[in-house]
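[scheduler] slot 2 assigned
[scheduler] job type: sequence-to-structure, two independent chains
[scheduler] chain ordering preserved from manifest
[runner] begin chain α
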Amino acid sequence: MTAAAPPAPAVPGDRSRPLAGTGILLRFALRRDRVTIPLWVAANALMVLSMPSAIRGLYGTPAERAELMLQMETNASLRAMIGPVFGDSVGALTAWRIGGYAGILAAVMSLLVVLRHTRDEEESGRQELVSSGRVGRRAPLTAALLAAAVANTALALLITAGLAGQGAAGALALGLGVAGTGMVFATTAAIVAQLTQSARLARGLTSAVLGMAFVLRAAGDFATTGDASPAPGAGGEPAGGESSVLTWLSPLGWLAQLRAFASERWWVLLLFAAATALQAGIAYALAGRRDLGMSFLPTRPGPARGRVGTAGALAWRLQRGSVLGWSAGFFVAGAVYGGMADGAIRLVGDHDEAREIFRRMGGQADLTDSFLAAVVGMIGLVAALFAVSSVLRLSGEESSGRAEPVLAGAVGRLRWAAGHLLIAFGGSVLIMLMAGLGLAAGHGGRLGPVLGACLVQVAGVWVIGGIAVLLHGVLPRGAVAAWGGGRDGAADRLGRSRAGRPAARAGPLPLRAPAQAAGRTDGVGAGGRPAGARGAPGGRGAGGAAQTGHRRLSPVSPAGMLRVQPAYCGLSRRTA
């Protein structure tokens, strides 16, 4: 006779401890993110650490750096876009130029880590299985926040060590400020994870909060009264003026007001600590007042009668929020960049190296057109991210099991996929049109040429989206590799080689009419250099590949399609 085994004795108080199992869950979270977190940290740190050498190359003397700072004092549009500058040292200019972007990347990394290990786990049902063991009620949230803290600590250490040569105190301040920004948004994501029942909605809301923080910081810096920048040679001390209240409402504004490498305000770090502690407390309080899998903002019930009758309508219903959000964001970004075009050109002034970088980015003879062309190219790179994310929605629908009941009916697989692809490729056109409208509105006219320039970028966006479709069909698990297409182009936009970009097949085109470009017989290209000379913006070497700086251009990478310049869209009516 077989007798049932007696149940295992319960461990007294194990489940009653709120943080039971936190260490195990933390190790598990770090193991799952053993690739993504190091990539985020390394990319952010390398971006920051590469800036001092770039600043030395552009502004090699103290007089040039002091002149740059004085120009920034009267340039409200650039101050709103990048932030205020508080010193003329290489370290202070590094913190000014890249500190805000490093904080944004740290915030994105942190909110994604927290949402991945909280709301994503609950939505998939894995958290319910984990919670059935010896795991405390607050352990999952604590482990997620600790994982974000580990990532931000590593980032702070790398920034501090890498910039120590510019000044140990300033490097420590910048590293702690970037990490503090990341932790503020990590706890923001922890709150949003308790409010929403969908991980996708949670990511959208936290991204909106981050966007609002940027807008508040930009508006505050634009409205800064008096002179908030230091006088040259004043040791980083501000000459006068006060920051706007709006600046202090944004964690990104706190990062700038920390004033790394310029008489650091160490007390600003208390704002990061207080905001992190307060938001963490709110997140824990909310987590203790809801059931697992539930939320304080429940999912809205659907209509009593279905209105979605086709696969395309279903795809639009699923992705309309994303399309509308991207469109609005691109319009605002275009308006901001268009409004700062003239200010950017005034900032460059007669600095030959800076003017050459603008021409290399835009491939144009006129600096204003160079700036606009470079902006259009960068907007195209970001639009490629929308196309890839929209295509990868196919993988998300399949992995979540939502595609199975749809395909079980009369809807074929190709028709189902075509609905999502129509949104991906058609939405790319829409958001580029919105970017063009915003750019023209901000710059004050030239709607037709600017829209044409934006539409030129659609071809490159579609190429990267098409690669994502190919990877999804052939190697579904490798579809995420399509993100690399946009990343390569983004790295090139930072001023390095454009090698491996397929737009090199067309070459960096000057903003002139084709007849004017063909009519030149003096052999001199834009910038007054021989058209075939090494380093000429429009030159070609003996092998036929266009030259930029000192690197050859190779028509290989799909991201390079976004390098096609809007020359033949009539963006400029001026000749060289």
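[runner] end chain α
[runner] begin chain β
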Amino acid sequence: MEKTRPRAVLAIAIAIGFFILLTIFLRLYANVLWFDSLNFASVFWTVFWTKLGAGFIFGPLFLLLFGANVYWAMRSSAPTNSAFIEITFKEELPSSDEEAEDDETHQTEEGGNGPVLERSEGLDEENTTQEPSEPSQPFLTDEGLKYALI
């Protein structure tokens, strides 16, 4: 069945193309007959060859300008593979069960996977953490994007 489907599509495309060409030819033939009946066949052929010549001159010119525009747009756009960014973590992310069991704050060097708390100069050595009021730095966890508290 896979081989019949492309053949059927090709046959339909050829049939549609044939009907389009037939329509163009019939309109052209009707115009030739009409202009000839009025003794203005030379006017018809002058207009016909002028339109055909203009199409052959300006068609490739348009394609050249269009192709240059597409080429410039593709070169100046961002690379398409930049959407695939590999995210690596220095340590494994805890599962949601481990987070529920361990309520302690997890601190890493660069934000890590838990809230990072700054050390305040006014606190003594025993109490080294302080809860900030609003999140400021995003990071990824198993549950999605979260914010580190800095």
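[runner] end chain β
[qc] chain β: Helices lie at 4-37, 41-76, 96-101.
[scheduler] slot 2 released
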